[in-house]
Design a protein that fits this description.
- There is one protein chain.
- This protein is an alpha+beta fold.
- The protein is built from three helices and twelve strands.
- A hairpin with a 2-residue loop joins strand 9 and strand 10.
- The longest helix is centred in the middle third of the chain and has 36 residues.
């Protein structure tokens, strides 16, 4: 048993309520394209990520083959363009010396222009193949903390399933607490 002296102090009264923490900044990681087979996952639950950070690497074997083929197409088109340019320049020089026909020069110029157009088309295919290859790199769309990783290496990644996002990032800068307060405590 102990004794104590009476004195005045502040009386603090607390109530315990349960609520939930939510965020306006919730993002589901999704691929730019149709998705694909996961080769690597670079994040784990609780990890901080930044905008543009690589999160998942999808299988890119087909896209790499397409890029290689497109690059070879550019090389072949440039070879044809160089040949057409040389032919056109030689026929043009001969025409200036009154040798040959003007029609040959015009045809050579048309061949050169067509070869130049093929080079531009092949370069566009390379750019398109490079973009398709880049689409196999799935990046974070917002900064925050990884809340869920519901997918594993070898599974198909689309970004979302019927149960929700496969990888969820929460922007922890905009969190809010939502607590329902009973009516008898509202006035207090």
């Amino acid at each position: 048993v102990a004794g104590d002296t009476l004195r005045t102090t502040d009386f603090a009264h607390y109530i315990d309520l349960q609520g939930k923490i939510s965020s306006n900044g919730i993002g589901y990681v999704a691929p730019k394209g149709q998705g694909g087979l996961i080769r690597s996952i670079y994040v784990s639950v609780g990890q901080r990520v930044g905008v543009g950070q690589l999160v998942v690497k999808l299988d890119d074997a087909i896209q790499r083959q397409q890029l290689t083929a497109a690059q070879q197409g550019v090389s072949q088109a440039k070879t044809q363009q160089a040949l057409a340019q040389t032919t056109w320049e030689r026929l043009q020089n001969l025409w200036k010396q009154n040798i040959g026909s003007e029609m040959n020069v015009i045809n050579a110029k048309a061949s050169y222009d067509a070869a130049s157009a093929q080079v531009r088309a092949a370069e566009a295919q390379v750019a398109q193949a490079a973009e398709a290859l880049d689409m196999t790199n799935v990046r974070a769309g917002l900064s925050g903390v990884v809340e869920e990783v519901n997918v594993r290496v070898g599974e198909f990644f689309t970004g979302a399933t019927q149960q929700g996002g496969q990888i969820v990032i929460v922007n922890s800068a905009s969190l809010k607490a939502e607590v329902p307060v009973p009516d008898n405590y509202v006035a207090k």
